[in-house]
């Protein structure tokens, strides 16, 4: 009996030690999580203030190069005029990069409003908006059926607008262009939406890069843009606990997938 009691005591001690250890690890984890949240917040506000502060000197640069172009162009030779033009264009471009960065950092800063989202309605709306900028283009649209999901409607609209406008942009050389928007089964807890086009595509070797801020695989003189669209898509998907992936081949079109939580 005594032996049994001793064994029980040892087990009890061990259990208490383990529980203490778990409590300690839990506390450590909570601490780490709040440290991470704080660091994230700091990074967000850093991005925000840097972009914000860069705007003022940039306004001068663009403003004065414009003045130079207007008032002093007669005293500049052709080369000089070209230089001023280049300064002006580069300043403008930097301005739109900064604006994009600000918009991007805002996504991380604002509270999301999660609710049931009627994806069918949202996607119909987004397609109608994108179609307004496709006058004169020959595009065959194929649009599937979509279930409801759980998310922030305005952020998810941004996701769709970005993917659809990419599909339209990178298929601009095709006659006709084909764009397919649909939903895959996903899993018990997620739905997967895809946007597929028959445009210029991309090399799969760089597929991971596409979602980085300002990362582009095509030159600005071929297809304009700053390279913030897919970074925005990824950030929003991740905020929803979802993910993104891309498939493509050079000259054979591209497909972008976003998985989102199902309706609760
Ligand atoms: N549908 C697509 N087909 C081929 N390449 C694509 C497609 N969508 C995106 N890409 C590639 O991924 C890059 C990043 O896309 P992203 O949407 O972030 O930038 P962007 O469209 O160039 O500019 P922005 O969206 O900021 O106007 C693009 O520059 C292009 O090289
Ligand atoms: Mg884009």
Write a compact overview of the structure shown:
The chain has 2 domains: about 1-110, Helix Hairpins; about 115-260, Heat Shock Protein 90 (2-Layer Sandwich), CATH 3.30.565. The chain is built from 5 helices and 7 strands; from the N terminus they run H-H-E-H-E-E-H-E-E-H-E-E.
Task: Please describe what this structure looks like.
With 264 residues, this protein is α+β, with helices and mostly antiparallel strands. The protein has helices spanning 2-71, 78-109, 119-131, 153-170, 229-239; strands at 115-118, 139-143, 148-151, 177-184, 190-197, 243-248, 254-261. It folds into 2 domains: 1-110, Signal transduction histidine kinase, dimerisation/phosphotransfer (DHp) domain (Helix Hairpins, Orthogonal Bundle); 115-261, Heat Shock Protein 90 (2-Layer Sandwich). 55% of the residues lie in helices and 16% in strands. The protein has a 5-stranded mixed β-sheet with strand order 2-4-5-7-6, covered by helices on one side. A hairpin with a 5-residue loop joins strand 4 and strand 5 (190-197). Helix 1 packs antiparallel against helix 2 (78-109), helix 3 (119-131) packs across helix 4 (153-170) and helix 4 packs antiparallel against helix 5. It is extended, with a radius of gyration of 26 Å. The mean pLDDT is 93. Bound molecules: adenosine-5'-triphosphate and magnesium ion. Residues 100, 162, 166-167, 170, 197, 199-202, 210, 216-218, 225-231, 248, 254 line the site of adenosine-5'-triphosphate.
């Amino acid at each position: 009996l005594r032996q049994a009691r001793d064994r029980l005591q040892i087990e009890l001690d061990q259990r208490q030690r383990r529980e203490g250890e778990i409590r300690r690890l839990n506390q450590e984890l909570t601490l780490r999580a709040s440290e991470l949240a704080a660091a994230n917040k700091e990074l967000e506000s850093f991005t925000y203030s840097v972009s914000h502060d860069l705007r003022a000197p940039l306004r001068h640069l663009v403003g004065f190069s414009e003045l130079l172009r207007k008032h002093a162009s007669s005293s500049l030779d052709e080369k000089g005029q070209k230089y001023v033009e280049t300064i002006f264009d580069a300043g403008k471009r930097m301005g739109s990069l900064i604006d994009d960065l600000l918009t991007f950092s805002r996504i991380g800063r604002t509270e999301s409003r999660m609710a049931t989202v009627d994806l069918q309605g949202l996607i119909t709306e987004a397609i109608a908006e994108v179609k307004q900028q496709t006058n004169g283009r020959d595009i065959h649209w194929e649009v599937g059926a979509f279930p409801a999901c759980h998310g922030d409607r305005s952020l998810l609209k941004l996701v769709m607008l970005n993917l659809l406008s990419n599909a339209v942009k990178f298929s601009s050389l095709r006659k006709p262009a084909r764009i397919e928007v649909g939903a895959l089964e996903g899993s018990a807890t997620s739905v997967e939406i895809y946007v597929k086009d028959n445009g210029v595509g991309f090399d799969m070797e760089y597929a991971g890069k596409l979602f980085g801020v300002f990362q582009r695989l095509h030159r600005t003189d071929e297809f304009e843009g700053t390279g913030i669209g897919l970074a925005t898509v990824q950030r929003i998907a991740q905020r929803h606990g979802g993910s993104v992936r891309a498939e493509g081949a050079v000259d054979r079109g591209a497909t972008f997938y976003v998985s989102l939580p199902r309706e609760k």
